[in-house]
Design a protein that fits this description.
Oligomer: heterotetramer
Strand order of the largest sheet of chain A: 2-8-7-6-5-3-4
Bound molecules: pyridoxal-5'-phosphate
Distance between the termini of chain B: 48 Å
Strand content of chain B: 15-25%
Helix content of chain A: 25-40%
Helix content of chain B: 40-55%
Shape of chain A: globular
Structural class of chain A: alpha/beta
Distance between the termini of chain A: 35 Å
CATH class of the largest domain in chain A: Alpha Beta
Largest interface: A-C, 69 and 69 residues
Number of strands of chain B: 3
Radius of gyration of chain A: 21 Å
Strand content of chain A: 5-15%
Number of domains of chain A: 2
Number of strands of chain A: 14
Shape of chain B: globular
Largest sheet of chain A: 7 strands, mixed
CATH superfamily of the largest domain in chain A: Type I PLP-dependent aspartate aminotransferase-like (Major domain)
CATH architecture of the largest domain in chain A: 3-Layer(aba) Sandwich
């Protein structure tokens, strides 16, 4: 039985072209871009080409791209780095309740260091109201960080609107674009952001490499001190194969974004319709249209998402739930709770995220398997009477 | 978005795939209810007890795979025992029988409480 | 003309076996170890095997290994992480004047946050005197960080002795073992360290992956907040190919350390002798015997190291100098200055670092080329009268 | 341990490999000394000047490849010029002639100062 992979939002396979581009840097071309002429020059050229490709994906220039070890580091660098750099002028940060843990984590860490954080609410689709942003701004606000598209429910935020407010109030604006980059149009100028986080393994590149766009003259205190790599924004010997892989992945996806998005949006709406037709008591999470092309997220009443995923997995289908197992219970998704779902429905969430290689017949397999699974689990469930 | 299924043993998977004794028993001699749907774990246990012996046990459960597996396992473990004997089933018995991972120990703990709740219910009904 | 690579201390080529081990994670096996059953399980198993291999290289257990994005991050995490975790109990850190920038950088950053740092002096061979460590300890000392072997001059520090002092005084002890791991015997129990930094690209593994050994119950505040990866010491989707590559590199080098060290020590002493015989006014930097097997570092009077390296490079030989070009001058090596070399000699340093594939005839080529280069540059130099 | 040679242009490399006019001129009409051996950059320029024309120029230099290249280039640039004309050589002239990278601009700046020093020495000797 062929496996059906519907967890592209978690991580994507590496494209073959990406692997081929990385290969030399895992074999003979082992130079360190910071040293040496003959070996280092090739490495440096390849690195700068990759930087241009990554920059181009979000319409920035290569001088503004800092490579990091992934999206998590990019978010940490942006948030803690900007907050620390501006510590003298204020200590208030605005974010939303539906951010990724790698944004909320740094915010909590800043809180422990005496910062005040405002976690803005969202509407039932997961959207931040720009008016709320405006109201939250104080004299001591130094940073606003609102994600571009949500990783669980796929909802796209009204970023340009929020950026305008940030600009008018002279506050840095960061966005976590890790789910949107390459999948929908992302343009640092149109969005007018100061900082934007990226990650390679969501666009068919390797894990362990990401980037932070830092607009010229925006101040960020480094997280990793040491050598002068990455314009002194980030010390450490450069992950050459990763950087070259990221560059290739960015270059390839750039021209495919439009067509992929159109195809996936159709598949997405097809799957949503089929599931609605065949399973009672399910609810779409996130915005019905203003959402990532490849994202389907439903709450299935009376069952726990973890058990649904396990059953799907046993049928060869990889999916995800927003529920997180801890050592004493299962935590419902903070995103769904913030959107006003009750805890029971928040527990029953299932994310099916599609990508470049998703075929319609794979969705058909899901649409055929899921009703039986839900039926079975509801029969066992004491919540289903 | 984490499933962390790789911590599930073959034994958990076997019970999860084919849970034995699903159902409720009407007018059960003892009933136990444990857990909280808002925390993602709910277990129900129904006992049919005659002449001091657990003749039949049924369950319902919602939660992670281990929760469903453990509740089903419990129905098997206690059938044929007296309620007093059932109380001797420990957290470790459940955990060992299912090869539960460290972070799933709480499921065994809840399972133990579930048995206790059902037996206590039986006792309170008897008197 | 075959290139001669004598900059193994900067970075090493990736072993073919390492590349082969990484390949599946850059192709079909793209699972995320934190998610999913079928895909994730394989990734998780491979990750834990790699963790065991990395642990074994320094005689620790896999539960004590935290993967990082490289040596720089490992040093930053150890130093800033431990200092912040212990902030309540004290704010004094002891280090040495000859540490790598990725240790000095975090120390400077702590200084800016109100910590007091003691930079211990070294003797003419680059060694820290354990008595100086003892004297520097105060009531508020929370951490001692002294490297195992120096990256420029190869000198090995009397670590076990220093660790004993740290233990007696109940102070955390960290060591940067990035140059020693795999090249000489490294054992966290014998050295009795609490924290130890490693990096894969110095032992024929890939760039962009490293590890921090954290002794059980040692407190370290994470640098990267977010998900619960790496036992919550380090958030971020795991760099699977890097981790698997590091594990393989560690496993392979473990059994070769002794034989490699013996062979390279001989080659090293051979090259030192030949250079001494053929070039006047050169001086060996570092300890004559207590040094890394593959490290040769000389100061060449009257010339600048940068120009020597460039000339060597033009003859196909890759080497390094301790001098660092800045935008207004060339900075002499801080290591050589700390060892008491005058600035002129510190400027004339040349590091030739050997590795697994270094052959005697390559050293002969250097021994033949270098005298002419030095002669030529001295003829141009105004310092040589 | 950084060389950063990749920032060196072909032009720098050409002058570095085959520096023209290495040497000193005894009893030179003008001499310039710039730099500091403790900072890794030293340049010496010697001018032979007759009837107000720089007939010959020699140099010595120590430092990075760009330093050596720039000092050599300067000897070529100023030969045949009057000292006054030599002073018109700008930092940019040197930088452009060698395609210097941004972080090596200081070498062109020092080169400019070197010419000035030698011309000033010539003037002070003349009076
Ligand atoms: C929205 C979002 N932000 C941040 C991250 C973290 O990026 P990385 O996995 O590269 O650390 C992810 C994915 O994991 C994400 O989906
Ligand atoms: C002694 C020492 N510490 C730290 C590092 C930094 O490690 P990485 O290059 O993996 O960031 C290096 C090498 O660059 C080193 O030699």
């Amino acid at each position: 039985m062929e496996r059906v992979y519907l967890d592209y939002a978690a991580t994507t396979p590496v494209r073959h072209e990406v692997f081929e581009a990385m290969k030399p840097y895992l074999n003979e071309a082992f130079g360190n871009p910071s040293t040496l002429y003959s070996y280092g020059e090739e490495a440096r050229d390849a690195m700068e080409e990759a930087r241009r490709d990554v920059a181009a994906l979000v319409n920035s220039t290569s001088g503004d791209i800092v490579f990091t070890s992934g999206g998590t580091e990019a978010n940490n660098l942006a948030i803690k780095g900007a907050a620390l750099a501006l510590q003298g002028t204020g200590n208030h940060v605005i974010t939303s309740a539906v951010e990724h843990h790698s944004v909320l984590g740094p915010c909590h860490s800043l809180e422990r260091q005496g910062f005040e954080i405002t976690y803005l609410p969202v509407d039932c689709y997961g959207r931040v109201d720009p008016d709320d942003v405006k109201k939250a701004i104080k004299g001591k606000t130094v940073l606003i960080t609102i994600m571009h598209a949500n990783n669980e429910v796929g909802t796209i935020q009204p970023l340009a609107h929020i950026a305008k407010i940030a600009r008018e109030n002279n506050v840095y604006f960061h966005t976590d674009a890790i789910q949107s980059q390459g999948h929908i149009h992302v343009n640092v100028e149109e969005l007018d952001v100061d900082l934007l986080s990226m990650s390679a393994h969501k666009i068919y590149g390797p894990k362990g490499i990401g980037a932070l766009y830092v607009r010229k003259d925006v101040k960020v205190t480094p997280l990793l001190d040491g050598g002068e790599q990455e314009g002194s924004y980030r010390a450490g010997t450069e992950n050459m194969p990763g950087i070259v892989g990221f560059g290739t992945a960015a270059r390839l996806i750039k021209n495919e974004t439009g067509a992929d998005a159109a195809r996936l949006s159709k598949l997405r709406d097809y799957l949503i319709a089929r599931l609605h037709d065949s399973i009672p008591d399910i609810y779409l999470n996130g915005h019905p249209s203003d959402r990532l092309p490849g994202n389907v997220n439903i709450s299935i009443d009376f069952v726990e998402g973890d058990s649904v995923c396990l059953d799907l997995d046993l049928e060869g289908i990889c999916a995800a739930t927003g529920s997180a197992c801890t050592t004493s219970s299962i935590e419902p998704s903070h995103v769904l709770l913030a959107m006003g779902r009750n805890k029971e429905l928040a527990h029953g969430s299932l994310r099916l995220s599609m990508g470049k290689w998703t075929k319609k017949d794979e969705l058909d397999r899901v649409a055929e398997a899921l009703p039986g699974i839900v039926y079975r689990l509801r029969e066992i469930s004491p919540l289903y009477k | 978005m984490a499933g962390r299924f790789s911590e599930y043993s073959e034994k958990v998977l076997a019970y999860f795939k084919n849970p034995r004794n699903v159902g409720v028993i009407k007018d059960a001699g003892g009933e136990g209810f444990i857990g909280d749907p808002t925390r993602g774990v709910t277990m129900e246990l129904y006992l049919k007890i005659d002449e001091g012996i657990i003749l039949d046990a049924r369950f319902k459960a919602s939660g992670c795979g281990a929760t469903i597996a453990a509740t089903s396992l419990i129905t098997e473990l206690i059938k044929g025992k007296t309620p007093e004997e059932a109380l001797f089933i420990t957290e470790k018995d459940i955990s060992d029988a299912l090869d539960l991972s460290e972070r799933k120990q709480y499921v065994a703990e809840l399972g133990r409480e579930l048995i206790e709740a059902a037996v206590n219910d039986y006792r309170s009904k008897k008197t």
